[in-house]
Design goal:
Chain lengths: 255, 366
């Protein structure tokens, strides 16, 4: 593995919950611009790994570094300000705000940093922010309901809104937790198209996904987790052919 | 787009100023056009507007805002005693002092959220109240309350008149109608600021915190300073209201810091509509109106009101209505509060919105 262009590095991470080893000996490098998928059966430790990456959980051992900066021990907002953005599995949005406001909030965070006391400025004067929010919402296919309350959206639309909130920040690393869960096949394909378009812009992505169709349409490289350990790593073709993977995970689905 | 919404803000503020300044005219039929009561409307309106910036926008419910009201009053009276009877320095010092205390109390209380935050603010306010009565007696004059006296230095005035002087604004005496217009002017400025805060990026962040605070952290915001600033700003409003109380009647007592006073502003805000611009003002107006008008009703006035009814019916109606006025005005307020909360959880402003929708619908179908 060439190390010179690895931007996101999980090194030697261990995490256990009251004696249960959720993650052991995780080593993972994500290259700049690539889409890296993490797959594995239920309980394999995927979500734990993601939570360690964004600072929600502290690993017992090991480090997570992004672009040379250690993320372990940092506050969630500091990690976001470094350009690492997470899209959640259960949509985390601002239900009482409009779609536009939902996307303008992350845009302002990107522009103004983690705190700015600008209570004498008019929101309506923020033209650039407005345009950016609007075009991002159109991109994810929510252009029709810009001024509706976010709480009125269907679950699938909420997920797309959250994706828009993440994309609007133009993150350097986007962590996606099952971005298409709860979407109909048609919407899933639209999301795949959208994510492939972003890839052309060179955004680095880590995706956790159940849906093999999504994984194989998007991923450059795949890491397979089982029982809290990495059992295989490589390109989609390499992983597909790995007997250990077939045994642990793909077996039932492929045959 | 920019000009359009700026225009809308200005229309709102000019309309608001017109309504406030014409209060002596349109409150006449309601029997509430005397300066004393109108000053109260303005002062408590200001208190409620400020409280709404914290509670209405961020959802953090403080049960201790009366502490800042009291701090504002004490500071203003001290300014009258030591410096000058001019109200301007008194108001400025009061706002600064309330801001400092709000920062200290807010900084600690905002380590927690939800009910724990409310309890912390309540604890701080009760501590301030008890300290004003006991250890701080040299500053607060304990139970008697802080008053002006002939022996006060007033180093800027060197006032050598007969008796205790009256507060003034560069010579204009702040009693009666001029006092009301001064309070009204400050209320209008306070309202203008609250409109700007609500419509600013900062205001949007506060609303986003109310909606989903965890998400704010993962969106890259440090929510703590936002909350501390919202707390300080609303504390400054309370300090300003406290100073105006001292301007219209230059004495300050610890009872102003009691938890019932903190509870009152919560009621005002919820009754009118938390999170709306006008709602808290309407709530403050209604509660102060009831407190001053209905509490003054007695059996005789009721008999006059229901004089047209047959005698036996009149007696029954007066007996029942008598429970809700005079001493029992709290009963009426409680009943109204219940009705609003059950049927209009968004307060009186939600009632207006629903009415507006109804009219628009019927207008469209017609």
């Amino acid at each position: 593995m060439a190390t010179e262009n690895i931007i996101f590095h999980v090194a030697d991470v261990h995490k256990s919950f009251s004696g249960l080893h959720a993650l052991s000996d995780i080593d993972l490098g994500v290259k700049e611009g690539e889409t890296h998928a993490i797959i594995g059966p239920n309980g394999a430790g995927k979500s734990t790994l993601l939570n360690v990456c964004i600072g929600r959980l502290k690993p017992d051992q090991g480090t997570v570094t992004f672009d040379g900066t250690a993320l372990t021990g940092k506050q969630p907002h500091e990690i976001n300000q470094l350009g690492v953005v997470r899209v959640f599995q259960t949509p985390e949005i601002f239900p009482d705000l409009t779609l536009m406001q939902n996307v303008m909030v992350p845009c302002l965070s990107k522009r103004d940093g983690s705190f700015k006391l600008n209570f004498f400025r008019r929101m309506s004067a923020e033209k650039d922010i407005k345009e950016l929010a609007e075009s991002t919402l159109v991109d994810v296919g929510l252009g029709e309901q810009l001024y509706n309350d976010a709480s009125s959206l269907s679950r699938g639309d909420k997920r797309r809104l959250e994706l828009a909130m993440g994309l609007a920040q133009k993150p350097r690393l986007l962590l996606l937790d099952e971005p298409t869960a709860g979407m109909a096949r048609h919407d899933t394909n639209k999301t795949i198209d959208l994510l492939n378009r972003i890839k052309a812009q060179g955004m680095t992505k880590v995706i956790i996904e159940h849906d093999m169709h999504v994984v194989f349409s998007l991923a450059d490289r795949i890491t397979v987790l089982a029982g809290g350990r990495i059992i295989a790593q490589g390109t989609p073709d390499e992983v597909k052919g790995d007997p250990k993977v077939r045994e642990a995970y793909l077996g039932e689905e492929q045959e | 787009m920019k000009n359009e919404s700026a225009l809308k803000d200005w229309t709102l503020i000019i309309l608001f100023a017109a309504v406030v300044l014409t209060m002596p005219i349109w409150l006449k039929p309601l029997g509430a056009n005397y300066p004393d009561l109108m000053q109260k409307f303005a002062i408590f309106g200001l208190f409620a507007i400020g409280f709404n910036i914290l509670f209405g926008l961020t959802g953090y419910l403080s049960f201790g805002h009366a502490a800042f009201l009291g701090i504002g009053s004490y500071t203003a009276v001290w300014s009258f005693k030591l410096l000058t009877m001019n109200v301007l320095p008194a108001v400025i010092f009061a706002v600064v002092m309330a801001g400092i205390f709000a920062f200290l109390i807010g900084f600690v209380s905002l380590r927690r959220s939800g009910i724990y935050f409310s309890i912390l603010t309540l604890a701080f306010a009760e501590m301030s109240f008890n300290m004003a009565y006991s250890v701080l007696t040299p500053i607060t004059n304990g139970e008697t309350g802080l008053q002006l006296s002939l022996k006060d230095p007033r180093i800027l005035d060197n006032f050598q008149g007969e008796g205790i002087p009256i507060t003034n604004l560069f010579g204009v005496k702040m009693s009666g109608m001029p006092g009301f217009y001064f309070c009204a002017a400050i209320l209008i400025i306070g309202f203008f600021l609250s409109v700007r805060i609500t419509r600013s990026p900062f205001g949007m962040m506060l609303r986003a915190i109310k909606s989903n605070q965890t998400r704010m952290a993962y969106t890259g915001f440090n929510t703590r300073p936002y909350l501390v600033w919202a707390f300080v700003i609303s504390g400054m409003y309370a300090g300003m209201a406290g100073a105006l109380m001292a301007v219209t009647d230059p004495l300050a007592g610890a009872e102003r810091m009691q938890w019932t006073a903190s509870g009152e502003v919560v009621l005002m805000t919820i009754l009118g509509g938390a999170g709306t611009l006008i709602g808290p003002l309407i709530g403050a107006g209604i509660i102060k109106y009831f407190e001053n008008i209905f509490s003054a009703f007695n059996e005789q006035t009721l008999n006059e009101v229901f004089g047209a009814l047959p005698d036996t019916l009149q007696n029954i109606v007066v007996k029942i209505a008598g429970l809700f006025v005079g001493e029992g005005w709290h009963l009426l307020l409680g009943l109204m509060f219940l009705i609003v909360i059950i049927f209009l959880p968004g307060g009186i402003m939600e009632g207006f919105r629903r009415l507006g929708k109804l009219f628009r619908l019927s207008g469209r179908s017609a």
